[in-house]
Amino acid sequence: MTERWSDRVGERFSLALDPESIAWFDGGWWHPAHGGEFQNPLPPEELLAEAPDCIWAGFMLPDTIPMISNRYGDWLCWRVGSDNRLSEVLHWYHGGGDWLPFGKRMSEAIALDCTRVSSPSAAYASNLVSGRGKTESTLWQWACGQLGLGVAGVEPSAIVRPLDSKSTQTQAFQGNDSPSGHSEIERALGAFLASSPAVIFEQMIAAIDWPLRAKAEPGIARRFQINWEPDMVRWIFDANEVPQARRQELCELLSLESDLSRYQDWDKAAELARRLVSVRADLGWAFDILGWSLERSGRLEEAIDCYFRGCFASVFSDQSITVRTHWYDERFRKFSAARLYHHYDRLPESIKQNDYLKLLWFSPLREGRSEIRCYWMRKGDAELKAGEPAAAYESYYRAGWDVGSHELPAYREILEGLIAAAKGAGWRARAAVADLHLKCLLGRVGRGSNG
Question: What contacts 24+ positions apart, CB below 8 Å, involve 72-78?
Fold first, then answer.
């Protein structure tokens, strides 16, 4: 009798697996396979190990399970929801712990991965995915089968996903207007991916991209007698930040039109960001871009409200290097917090007196991480004691993954709090996943460390 891996994985994590996830495990799609950037699925027996080596406890989010890796440490991870089901797929970046939602289902994430070869956010990996785009890509075929797309013989590289600032993922090609000749597939795939934060992120980056981003290098900063950070990065972020007195020289140097505003579409970027902040509150880059767009257009009151909401999104969700928001003073830890402080005299008293925001503004840069962690831990402890396990879970989560911690052993107490809160809320799967992260952490830092 063939062993059902899906039953064992579901039992291990107290998960109610959906048909697609069952098909993944029981169909053997986790065997070595060709895909896009991510083409190394994790065999289920590794997920069933006592403490899987693939789980970077304290770095990966505590409600995620790594599933497919690329060749240099990043993962597509399942995320577990409060209903004991899989809620979405995240792209987790090992080089700093950043993460980006990549689809509601694994099939959507794989389809996006296989067709994003030309996207700005994937270009850095192009030299690592020479196998991408081949029709024998088994992950591509599996994903499209799950999505109900007939793609036999169709290479993923032949699927067109428009990314420029005047296009949207939902555009459908009509008849022979599709450059690839696969209009029906493109239309169907676009419908699945239209709401993907990763796709919206690509479109947003495309909207504010301009030639300086590609051409800037330290030599240009020296020529203009400015620092690379924050000055040159700020210019790259927003062309309007280039001082009027330096624009002519920059345009001549880079062969640009004198009207720099024509190169970026901040209205489009704001429209895309607004779509996301209306449905989720955990993506820092969406609040940063929308807040800045409002600020630069003179709508400061709206910008302040947006920035304040953005302060509660994790620094690991802000994509600051790609977006180029990392020109802010790092002592404020978050772009949104830095912009609020810049307008301190214009802030309502309720924001000035917010205890958490004061920690972001005024606690020491390094020691402040511990202060922020302790703030959320105390809040979580109080909520758990008061019989509010759902609120406690969110606070413990922030304790570990808001601004992070220099002290890895401290994650033992954080994960223990998460487990207790998840159990109290009836979130069995979240408790099981956090418990596995705790086992992996203890295997690395030992059981006697409390941080």
Answer: 72/128, 74/37, 74/38, 75/38, 76/38, 76/102, 76/106, 76/109, 76/110, 76/113, 78/21, 78/106
If asked whether residues 307 and 350 sit together in one domain, one would say yes
How much is the CA Rg of the chain, to the nearest whole Å?
23
The angle at the Cα of 397, spanning 396 to 403, to the nearest 5 degrees, equals 105
- The Cα–Cα gap between 273 and 439 comes to 38
* Cα–Cα distance for residue pair 250/94, rounded to 1 Å: 36
Q: b/e per residue, 353-378, with b = 16+ CB within 10 A? A: ebebbebbbebeeeebbbebbebbbe
Assign 3-state DSSP to the chain and report helix, strand, coil percentages, each to 5.
Answer: 55, 5, 40
Please state the separation of Cα 287 from the chain's center in Å.
13
Rounded Cα distance between 13 and 21, Å, is: 13
Q: Are residues 60 and 185 in the same domain?
A: yes
Judge contact between 116 and 76, C-beta under 8 A: no
Say if 451 falls within a structural domain.
no
Based on the domain organization, do 241 and 354 belong to the same domain? no
With beta carbons less than 8 A apart as the criterion, state whether 271 and 278 touch.
no
Q: Give Cα 69 distance to the centre of its chain.
A: 16
The CA distance from 36 to 112, in Å, is 9
The pLDDT averaged over each successive group of 10 residues in the chain (451 residues) is 83 96 88 76 92 95 96 93 97 94 94 70 41 59 87 67 43 43 74 88 95 93 95 97 95 92 96 96 98 98 98 97 95 97 98 97 91 97 98 98 94 98 98 97 72 41
Print the domain residue range for 11.
5-204
For residue 103, the one-letter residue type is G
Q: Where do the H-state alpha helices sit in 13-117?
A: 19-26, 44-47, 106-115
Is this prediction's pTM over 0.85? yes
For residue 153, give the 3-state DSSP assignment: coil
The reply to whether 142 and 243 lie within a common domain is: no
Last residue of a domain, one of 230, 263, 296: 263
Task: Give CA–CA dist 403/127, Å, rounded.
Answer: 32
